[in-house]
Design goal:
about 230 residues, Rossmann fold, Arc Repressor Mutant, subunit A, 2 domains
Length: about 230
């Protein structure tokens, strides 16, 4: 089952909490951004499907954020809050897909998120995951960056990495990985998993001995860390 990923961008903690609870109840994987730079980075990471954005995020108007995000990402953008009028027009002209004026009913916002999700690319259709200093190209099975660095993944490395990315920020046990990738119980395959993880870290991590993305959960398994701030 593919989980929809929704980014909630607001400098208002209570509003983020309310939206996270409502969207999480519907089964969405929700992440948050509290500042303009966080909003842009997470919206352009290639991971989220939709961003629900306040009309002003930490002093930056939504239309300014939309103008920065839209050339870099095709994710759905919903701006909420503020009054219907110039703010809505500016946001829509800058690349927002929808605008929900305040006060809004959560049920209406959720319906608009569902409608937008039907139109935007699903995670399985995305071709690139943008990290801080490099990118994972899911179509060519390559890791690009920093700079001109371009490394190809072996079929097994890509299979493991893709599975980790599909379950980003969730713990995957050794048994889960071996059953998903090798279609068998853990047993003797655990050491093979460790070898593949070590190879991936050499290709993906800036410091393989202190991984930022593929993190070890001691005696349990691994977790792919996304999105990044």
């Amino acid at each position: 089952m593919i989980t929809n990923r929704v980014l909630v961008a607001s400098s208002n903690v209570e509003q983020r909490d309310e939206l996270r609870a409502a969207l999480g109840f519907e089964g969405h994987d929700v992440t948050e951004a509290a500042t303009g730079p966080q909003t842009v980075q997470k919206a352009c990471s290639g991971w989220n499907d939709v961003v629900v954005m306040d009309s002003v995020v930490d002093g930056i108007a939504a239309h300014e954020l939309c103008r920065t995000i839209r050339p870099q990402s095709k994710l759905g953008i919903i701006v909420c809050g503020g009054e219907l009028g110039k703010t809505a027009i500016d946001s829509l002209n800058a690349g927002a897909d929808d605008y929900v004026p305040a006060p809004f009913v959560p049920a209406e916002l959720l319906a608009r998120v569902r409608a937008l999700l039907r139109r935007v690319a699903r995670p399985s259709e995305k071709h690139q995951i943008i990290l801080q200093d490099r990118a994972i190209d899911l179509r060519s099975h390559r890791i690009k960056g920093p700079g001109d660095r371009d490394i190809r993944l072996t079929p097994k490395e890509f299979q493991v990495l893709e599975h980790l990315i599909s379950n980003a920020n969730k713990l995957l046990t050794h048994q889960t990985l071996t059953q998903s990738i090798w279609q068998r119980d853990a047993g003797g395959e655990i050491e093979y998993v460790r070898i593949v993880i070590k190879q991936l870290r050499r290709k993906l991590e800036q410091d393989p001995d202190n991984p930022r993305y593929i993190r070890t959960e001691r005696a349990a398994g691994y977790r792919f860390h996304l999105p990044l701030v």
